[in-house]
Amino acid sequence: MTDAMACPVNHSFDPLGDAYVADPYPILSGVREEAAAFYAPAIDMWVITRFDDIQSALMDPGTFSAAVGQRPVFPLAEEARAILKAGFHAYPVMSDCDPPRHTRIRRHNQKAFSARRIATLEPKVWAKATELVDAIEPGVVDLVSALTYPLPAYMIFTFIGFPDEDMDMLKSWCGNRIAFSWGRPTLDEQRDIASNMVNYWQYCEEFVAKRLAEPVDDFTSDLIRIHRADPESLSIPDITNVAYGLSFAGHETTTSFTGNAVRRLLVNRGQWDDLCADRSLIPKAVEEILRYDSSIPAWRRITTRAVTVGGVEIPANAKILLLLGAANRDAKHFEAPETFDVHREDSRKHLSFGQGIHYCIGAPLARMEARIALDLLAQRAPGMRLVEDQDFDFPANVSFRGPRKLLVDWPQ
Ligand code: HEM
């Protein structure tokens, strides 16, 4: 056994810094080569950089608790906390919850997230994506507002069972929630987001009560049926929490991912042309984009005890940042890891959906939505090009990455 070393400190690592926000990958590669783990004072977190260590942490929920998954990285202002306290009663159910509670709630959700329910969505994803693409006019278009934002938002709300006529209101309540828990929002932003979270929470409570009175054929009603069969095991507040949490998890992630996908493919024009010529390549391309430019390049944990990671000591109660984006380009696991290649055979080994008990429950839906969006774009606009010299604007935060706008020239 080798002696563990004291944890190095990296004073320059700052995921909210301009260079990282513009392009984190050179920084991720640098820190991965330098040390298996380090302390980053800018975010008061211990950061883990390599594939094997990140995989081990994901597979060890006893040591690496998920409890901090949704907690604001930076303390909120008193005013925002007061708004939440008055009307927002969410509690941990899945991504920020440990066993045994996580095991129970996840088991029920896994049932309701059945292959059958996901399959019933496929024609709806095609129909919605087709409607959105049909509405695009030739010329310069922002693909985020035209397609990659509305498609996952509509699909996750439909999946949960929210009625079509509420979509615009729901979308307006979801804005900017990334900044709240993963970034450094201003006081005004905190106030706005907190009020929206209260509205949205109350909407979810009323919606679940409606489904309890009259279940239909949707995901929430499936959970209600599970509740009715065994009320102790899945309570009504549990279901409200799931509905609340899913609307975020299933929405921003996929918007950002599809934006990253279109950008990467159009920058690598030859690979976009290959994909348009042979659309059976799309599922492989989706995995390569997940590996190369995921919408969640980093995720959080907190240690329950002191632990040694890659020979580096990390104390108990250490807030941890797992650099999934660095793991996905670790040369120990991927050949020529910095090369984007949709023909790569082993890209599916990426850690972009996590691994172990918290493995992303929405992975099949996210993959399906991205696949269908790319398929339609390849059919309808193989000649589409990125508008040159545009500045890509990415939100500054520790976990989520995707362009807020993506300007393309849509052909005649
Ligand atoms: C490309 C899009 C997506 C990416 C990159 C992504 C990534 C992730 C990651 C990294 C985790 C955390 C795993 C962990 O803590 O170990 C996660 C968990 C989760 N994701 Fe996703 N996700 C995506 C789309 C979705 C969608 C569409 C949904 C819902 C429909 C969803 C629902 C969830 C839920 C509920 C969890 C928590 C699971 C648990 O803790 O048991 N995600 N996802």
From TrEMBL:
Metal-binding found in the keyword field: yes
Keywords noted in UniProt: Heme, Iron, Metal-binding, Monooxygenase, Oxidoreductase
Source superkingdom: Bacteria
Cross-referenced Pfam families: p450 (PF00067)
MF term (GO), any: monooxygenase activity
Family: Belongs to the cytochrome P450 family.
Name of the protein described by the UniProt record: Cytochrome P450
Organism: Kitasatospora griseola (Streptomyces griseolosporeus)
Origin organism lineage: Bacteria, Bacillati, Actinomycetota, Actinomycetes, Kitasatosporales
